[in-house]
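[job 4471] stage=fold_predict status=RUNNING
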Amino acid sequence: MKFEGEASLPGTPEQVWALFQDPVRLAKCLPGCERLEPTGPDQYQAVVKFALAAISGKYAGSLAFTEKRPPHSLKLRLEGKGVPGFMKGEGALELTANRDQTKVRYSGDAQVGGMIAAVGQRMIEAAARRIVQQFFESCARELRQADHAK
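[job 4471] inference complete, writing structure tokens
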């Protein structure tokens, strides 16, 4: 499954970049994230709770950032396994200043298998779009809160 799109976030590319590099703040933004712990430079172990139709469960996996060009772009790799199946993906984020905001372009490719794949491609794609939207909404909230805390 391929996906792409863009989102606008409040703040400069440097502020958005800082959010993406802070595991505590980033965990707050990831839908269903119960734990995000650094395991090395730009590598994390994660536990995420996820539900799709009648299938729900926890996934344990890894997240790694690669090809970092602060504060302009990065690539990421993620993998997760759980009772409902597995998920594996790669993506890219591009940050561009746009007045007092940052435009984030994202693209990627993901594969799912096991019971979760049985619900059908359309449902999976709709759920993925919703998760991406929730992620960027949470990022915007986190950036606004950080700005107000100054």
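[job 4471] summary: The helical segments are 13-21, 23-29, 121-148.
[job 4471] exit 0
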